[in-house]
């Protein structure tokens, strides 16, 4: 302490005092954040426990009691709106504060309370859309801002998506919100490690750090989420739209990445045959099969100067020329790269899976009846 005073008096300790002052200000900010976060986090945990325990009990009472008895609501409209405002305010901080992002209260409210909320439909959906809007904005910042994407807490983000997925299963009406569709596209961008075209064009002259590859559990939740949204929205959200509305999705490396990380897992999810799983539409099946067949029916050139040549046409209306020059996204040029064996393997597996998916879709529509044993096999 004496040495510090001597340095300050002599003028040589000014940098030290500035660092000390900056550290004190940082400690004050962290303390203020902690004081703001802790009571709200505790309240969300308490509400989550309350809803998780009482919601099933109220359903049992509703079935057991006569119709003349009125079952009270778990939370009134004012409480639902207030809780949504609390989650909204914490999510605004979560983009820049890892501690807030990992708050147990937000996670539990998203997964245990939000899907079970009942009461006034207008108030409940308004609260859900408010939270959905903030989550969409948060993912947008993670995708388009490299400085934020370097330290993403994937587990917390996966839990947020899981909560919205459960809410979508309980309330399909929220699928009509543009924020939900935008959120799914942002999540797909994270899975295939690509930023939106708008973000790339705006910052074309700025160096972009490569996006980190998300862990498998996050990608699995994104596939579940997007498949459910496609099932609910039908023609308003398709697999083709998530892939950029083109059968030719880009260079061989990008095509393989989209096949392995998006199209194949989605086909497996849509064709699982489980009663609670979403079903594939005819448009999604046609797009998946067309994408796989375009690659399978393309032969690498014998000379490096030539482009890959398609051997046959599956559909004359496909938006792919006979000379298959892959389009490089965001750069406006074409690539003459050879198709690697791994892409052929992925396309062949996808074609086999797409055939099974098409049979399931036909059976669901009662168009195909498995009488012929050969077709059934």
TrEMBL record:
Xref: InterPro entries: UNC80_C (IPR046460)
Domain named Protein UNC80 C-terminal: residues: 21-307
BP-aspect Gene Ontology terms: monoatomic cation homeostasis
Gene Ontology CC annotations of this record: axon; cation channel complex
One family name in Pfam for this protein: UNC80_C
GO MF annotations, alphabetized: monoatomic cation channel activity
UniProt protein name: Protein unc-80-like protein
């Amino acid at each position: 302490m004496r040495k510090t005073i001597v340095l300050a008096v002599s003028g040589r300790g000014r940098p030290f005092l500035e660092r000390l002052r900056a550290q004190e200000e940082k400690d004050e900010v962290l303390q203020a954040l902690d004081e703001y976060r802790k009571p709200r986090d505790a309240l969300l945990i308490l509400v989550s426990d309350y809803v998780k325990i009482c919601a099933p009990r109220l359903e049992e009472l509703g079935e057991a009691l006569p119709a003349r008895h009125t079952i009270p609501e778990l939370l009134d409209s004012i409480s639902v709106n207030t809780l949504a405002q609390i989650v909204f305010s914490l999510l605004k901080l979560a983009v820049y504060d890892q501690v807030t992002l990992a708050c147990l209260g937000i996670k539990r409210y998203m997964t245990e309370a939000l899907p079970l909320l009942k009461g006034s439909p207008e108030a409940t959906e308004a609260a859900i859309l408010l939270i959905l809007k903030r989550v969409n904005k948060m993912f947008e910042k993670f995708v388009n801002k490299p400085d934020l994407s370097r330290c993403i807490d994937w587990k917390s983000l996966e839990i947020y998506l899981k909560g919205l997925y459960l809410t979508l299963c309980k309330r399909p009406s929220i699928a009509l919100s543009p924020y939900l569709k935008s959120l799914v596209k942002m999540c797909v961008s994270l899975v295939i490690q690509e930023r939106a075209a708008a973000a790339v064009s705006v910052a074309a002259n700025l160096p972009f750090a490569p996006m980190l590859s998300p862990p498998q559990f996050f990608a699995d939740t994104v596939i579940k989420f997007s498949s459910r949204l496609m099932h609910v929205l039908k023609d308003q959200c398709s697999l083709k739209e998530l892939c950029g509305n083109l059968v030719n999705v880009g260079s061989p490396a990008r095509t393989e990445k989209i096949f392995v990380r998006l199209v194949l897992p989605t086909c497996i999810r849509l064709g699982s045959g489980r009663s609670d799983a979403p079903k594939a539409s005819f448009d999604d099946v046609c797009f998946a099969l067309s994408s796989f067949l375009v690659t399978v029916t393309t032969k690498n050139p014998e000379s490096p100067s030539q482009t890959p040549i398609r051997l046959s046409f599956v559909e004359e209306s496909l938006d792919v020329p006979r000379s298959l020059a892959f389009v490089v996204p965001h750069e406006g040029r074409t690539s003459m790269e050879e198709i690697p064996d791994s892409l052929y393997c992925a396309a062949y597996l996808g074609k086999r899976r797409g055939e099974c998916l098409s049979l399931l879709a036909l059976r669901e529509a009662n168009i195909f009846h498995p009488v012929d044993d050969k077709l059934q096999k």
